[in-house]
Amino acid sequence: MNPELFFTKNTKAALQNDPPGEWMPPVPKYCIPLSAGYPAQSLVPYNEMNEAVKDLIEEEKDLPFQYLGSKKVNTVKKFVRERLVERGVVLLEKEILVTAGAIQGIDLISRTFIDRDTWIVVESPSYMEGLEVFRNYTDHFITVPIDEYGMQTEELEKTLKNRKEKNLPMPKLVYTIPSFHNPTGTTMSIDRRRHLLELASEFNFLIIEDDAYGELYFDERPTPIKAMDSGSRVFYLGSFSKTIAPGLRVGYVAARSDLIEPLAWFKKDLDHPFAEATLGSYLIQTDMKKRFEMLRKVYQQNCKTLISSLEKYMGELATWQQPSGGYFVWVNIPGINTSEILVEAMQAGVSYVPGKHFFVHEQEGLSYLRLSFSFVSREEMVSAVEILSQVVKKHLNN
Amino acid sequence: MNPELFFTKNTKAALQNDPPGEWMPPVPKYCIPLSAGYPAQSLVPYNEMNEAVKDLIEEEKDLPFQYLGSKKVNTVKKFVRERLVERGVVLLEKEILVTAGAIQGIDLISRTFIDRDTWIVVESPSYMEGLEVFRNYTDHFITVPIDEYGMQTEELEKTLKNRKEKNLPMPKLVYTIPSFHNPTGTTMSIDRRRHLLELASEFNFLIIEDDAYGELYFDERPTPIKAMDSGSRVFYLGSFSKTIAPGLRVGYVAARSDLIEPLAWFKKDLDHPFAEATLGSYLIQTDMKKRFEMLRKVYQQNCKTLISSLEKYMGELATWQQPSGGYFVWVNIPGINTSEILVEAMQAGVSYVPGKHFFVHEQEGLSYLRLSFSFVSREEMVSAVEILSQVVKKHLNN
User: What is the ipTM of this complex?
Assistant: First the structure.
């Protein structure tokens, strides 16, 4: 019995891509993981979570463990709604769908709107797990480069005009991470955000605005594209993974209710009431504004340390851009293939994510790598960058 | 902007069906919910879950809240593997995929193997949420009736031979709940289990064996179809929802590794590490054999109470079959349309699930209803059946 004979056309197409999550060899324990895109132990409120669970069970007993779940699930929605109002996005409750991390939002949107005939636009580079999900639905990608002001919407406009003239298939969706972009750390300018919305209306496409890092600005808070979305073309994706705990897997999608309804339809029963109730209980106990402030300060200081280490050890070897928020610094090391030296770097004691994994066309990213300042201590960061610089120097001198 | 213009073909087809979960009007609070297919409060180990979370966090700190999650996730797999060995199913760890409830297993299998061209076989009646998920992928159902020995595999054989002769499309998958079937409570005989496997080999299809109720036998433990699956055509679905807590949303799929791999591919990141780790921590603390025994006794006694109430109040109005395990009794009331009297029954103080929702062809189920003996107290059960009998009598006399 050959299972492939039973696969659907889509499954066959999807499985021709690289298997998901296979983009990194295992990181040895002795390594300083600048690859790690998650919060440091000290920033995960695990004791508070313990309290949250305790209170939840004392108050609601079996409810959080039943299908229909606890009333605390509504607390999550309420928090999201109120927080979004402060960020300029005014929504009804029925316009918010709580999901198992922002990635379930990407999956549900894809499932509803993307099949093997669909063209979509992604930034180049883009969030690698996002690309993996999209590849499960289509191989038709249009890529738009990023510069220091985010997605080059002028380039997108040219491409769209050109495709229209030539009668080529037009994209249905544009996926963007406008604020503290993963992996580049850049933020889209307000003019380009407006331009993107204009293009959406002119060329009739929907936008996925992935704002997973939106709360983690250092100085200035960017205005979400969704806040200017008069045509209701934007799916706004948010997440508690970067600000509370990734393992809870709670995120959300916000959009016009007739765009949310089909997602809710497919999500049916792919729910996780206990995790959502735990988060709800935690949110009630926590001064989240204070927490956001604390996180911003810690990450800003972490970022400064990473940047000054790069200046000290790699100033003549590499270039990078100063992020204004988020988790990552995106480094370009001309003359180096970052995938090729990864194992050696890990043996020397430092890991990173090679740039190629963030590109639809991998060869565009060979000299790049992504460093995270969210997870390791500042002392470790300094050592890690020094180790990395030595590995790089050795290869440049060969 | 009309969102429908952006839908895929599949989305358009799926959304033409009834919206998911809309099969029951809200059950008023004063009602005795014989409709409730979940465990009673006293059977949900919420205090033990509190302990499990406390121990988990003390031992592993932030780990259960990170993406990669805790080591306790492996405890779940290990438990499943060892338990399945006792039930005659010997598997490698890589042949087990932990999922967000058994329903995510149904969804992942559907996603991998079913599209709008695929024919599948379901029992008539069948698990309504399962049918809802399948309908998101196809409308091509072949139904096979159930009698007191489960799915009538002789009927399936006739249908398959007939389709083959006529050169009609053949089904790729057969979905069955062989033990303590939802909603009928029946159990497939061992001969029919073997016959189904023979048919799978002869007519080249895969089998989904949904064993969500498998641990809840009253006297005799049925042998899973998977235990006899020499051809490796069976996806075995298990769940902790009926034996521990539905709101944790932890289930699993077990199958040959080349059938599991594509599911794992699509599942990517649709994980829930904190809930899995909590379950792992709970399993370490708990004598599960003792717990299973306790549950069997309670549910058997509940079932007896429900059946004797039916005998007392509805013996002349209705027929049903004695279940040998599970959660449900399936009642046939000739001359009554159970959907039509539901609101009145709820006003009188009792809820149930009307039979039609369990059928692909709803008209086949009009006189049936499903009663659950898992949730309400025995005293309430007796009152509820009395109330139901009065509503039924009133309608039969009209």
Answer: 0.95
